Every structure is written in structure tokens, then in C-alpha cells.
Amino acid sequence: MTNQLLEITLTNQEKEIFKLMTSTITHHKLQTVVRVAGGWVRDKLLGLTSDDIDFTISDMTGEKFGNYVLKYLEFVGVEHFALPKLRINPQKSQQVGTARLLLSDLWLDLSQLRHEEYNDNSRIPKVTLGTPEQDAKRRDLTINSLFYNLNKQIVEDFTGKGIEDLKKKLSRTCYDSQQSFLDDPLRVFRTIRYTARFSLRPTEEIINALQNEKVHQMINIKISRERIGNELENMLTDPDPIHSLLLICQMQLYPLVFKMQEIGNKETNDVLGYLNKLLEMLPNINDWNDWKKNRKLRFILSIALLPIIGKYQKKNSFVRILVTKSLKLTLKLSREIDLIHTAILQFSNLAQSIKSNQGIKRSHIALILREIGKKYYDSLLIAKIYSHSNQDLIQKFDLILSQIFDLDLIGVWDVSPLINGKEIMQILNLDKKNARSIIGTVIKSSLEWQLDNPKATKEDLINFIKQDFSNKN
């Protein structure tokens, strides 16, 4: 073990909470050592804020220590810790002794130090009371295995590599990488996520293990599709989703994560090309760092699924099947990605039809915008990524984007038709029988005319319909 006297600056709230823990030990004359574990220590050493405080208890369950805290608070009556609560997860607590303590609107996790033993059929280990060294070893990466000892007020590095790896920005497992991933394949996804989040350099051992076929097989055996979808969502809503997806592709995990027969090595290489183009475009994408998580998830996932754009199985698109059935993500998300892909194909067809000496009809752009709505900008960006090897097409996408503004098309998706089908039947003196053969054509033509003539009145549209369709009826 390596003890390092590294400085951690505590907030006032953290000072009060940590003092409460040590005062509880003193009051009840316990021999307990309380440590903060994992992410909070890592973030503090990196100068980041964190309210994700997980405590490890040296000699009892989290539930038991939590009750000691409540008894101490009842004894001293600390008002700013009003209405503290202790919440137990009976199923989880029975095995690992975990509890959650509410203090000052902050939920704190309390758990005993533990040792884990794995078998070949499950990622759920057999858990026993452990030492600090054993508890550190069970964690995914060395940078997440650090402790802050409240009793001594020092950082503890029981793997002997966590602090050094944090300084050198290395991604390293706490023991043999292949065995670590075989024991708990979920660590594969956590490794990718943290490697991307903190711009770490994975060790050669990790790279080899991530690409190992046995590890891939164990992912299929030990992890449900729901959990894989959840981990992917976590990666793609993190600060650097592009890096996460790049790692998935580079580590040959893309076919495994996006599980569908139509996805393989070629598709992996295609996505790598799309992501490299995105990185090239990134400095010019408006407010990328301020995009909301859901928008980034939809955007990156739309790029990840470009290899199956426009492909259908019976009446369902492959996108909807993969998002809802394989990744177990929401139907709403699958519909949004499907809509973006449809808009990409429509914008591509429009771009290909543009001649150098011709303008673009307002209605041609407007009709696409009425389907895609406010997601038009993202759709055009992805269209450029999808066509990244065709510079002429990319320039035409830029022309379409400029025309959206020049032709005052922002908000066209909210424009209501000036005339409905019933009114058209009256204008053309159509009965229900005669209307069947023409009404759809008239409605479509009327909407296109309205979109091409945004300042026209309802009366102008009526005159157009009479002139254009009266003789055809």
C-alpha cells in the first residue's frame, strides 16, 4: 500500500458531513475507519466538484453504521441536518450491507469494505467482508480505487498505481485486465466511458483485453441487452461521446454492442470514417459543448446507425428494431433517429437534384422541414457526415442550410394549411365519390403552392385551385 499525503480541498458541506462521521465514531467509542471511495476522490484530486460521496465502513455494514449516525444526531440535535433518513435496499443490503443516508438534501452511500469472488456464469460475485486492499482491487480502474481516510484525513492508494495513473492519465485495471473483464464484463463499458471522459490513454494490456474474443463472449453471457443499452446511453450522454464511440469501434466492439446480423467489420470501418469527419467538423458546430444530453445521444446514435439507414424489415426500419429490441432503448428515441435518417435521405435527394445554374424551390425544402421540424440542423450535419467523401454534395448541403434562412423557412413546420380537404371539395364542387381520385393531389399541390407563396392569402390559394384544377375535374 502507498499512502500519499495529497491535499484535498473540502467544501463547507463536506467538512460538516465528514465531521459528523468522525464524531459518530468518537461518541459511540467505535474502532471503525470510515473512508470515501472511488469517484469523489478522483474528482477532488483533479480539482473537480463532486456530490457523489460513497463511504466504506471498515468493520460493519452500512446499515449498522447509518443507525449509529442517526442515534448520534438524535443525541446532539444538529439542526442543519434536519430530518435525516436512512434507506435500505433489502435485497442488496443482505449481501453487501449497503444503505443510503440522507443529510442536507444529499444522499450518501454507506457500505462495508468487501471482497468479491466471481464464477464463470454470472457477473454477480460472492461477497464477503474485506480489507481496504481487497475493496480497492474489486474496482474497475486504478483511478477509481482511491480512498480518502476520514480518520487520518489522507488519500490512500491501495493498488499502488492509482495516483500515478491519475497524474499520467492512464487507463489501467486494478488487476489483470483480461481476468477483470471476464469476472465482470460490465467493466468493459465502464473502462471505455472513463477513458473517454478523462481523455485517458489505455494500457496495452487493456487494449488487448478489450479486443479479446473470450471477453466478448462473456459480455454476451453475463450482461443483458438492457444493461448494454443502458451503458451505451451513459457513454453517449457523457461529455465526450465521440471518444466513447470511437473506442467501441477501435476495440472491435461495435458489432457486439449494436447487435444485428447486418452489422460487421465493414460497418465498423464506415462508422470510424463518419466519426473522423465529425471530429473535423466539430470546431464549426454551433454550441456543441452546450448541447443537452438527449440531443447529443440522439445525434451520436444517429451517426452510429448510419450503416443501416433506409433499411427495412417488412414494415419496420432496422433502426427501430435495433434501438428498441437490441439496445432496449425507448420507442421515442428510435422514432426520432428514424425521422433524422429519413430527412438525411430526403436532403440527399434534394441536393443531388440541384443544378449549378438553378435555385431551389422553397416548397422542396419546406416539405422536408415540415417532417423533421427543429431537428433540421442536426439532420443536415449528419447528412454532410454521411456524404463526407463527396465534396460537391457537402457544398450543396451548405447551400440548403443557407436557403433555409434566406427563404425565411424557420418555423415553417408550424404553418397550417390555408385550406382543408372539405373546403377544396366545395371549391371544386366534388362529391365523395369524385373526390377520391383527385383530392390527395389537390391537397398536396395546394400546400406546395402555399409554401412557394408564403405571403399569399387564402383567396389567392382558392383562385389557384380553381384555375389549376377546375378543368381537370
UniProtKB/TrEMBL annotation:
Keywords: RNA-binding, Transferase. It comes from the Eukaryota. Pfam families: PolyA_pol (PF01743). Gene3D superfamilies: Beta Polymerase, domain 2, cca-adding enzyme, domain 2. InterPro entries: NT_sf, PolA_pol_head_dom. Residues 35-170 form the Poly A polymerase head domain. Belongs to the tRNA nucleotidyltransferase/poly(A) polymerase family. This is tRNA-nucleotidyltransferase.
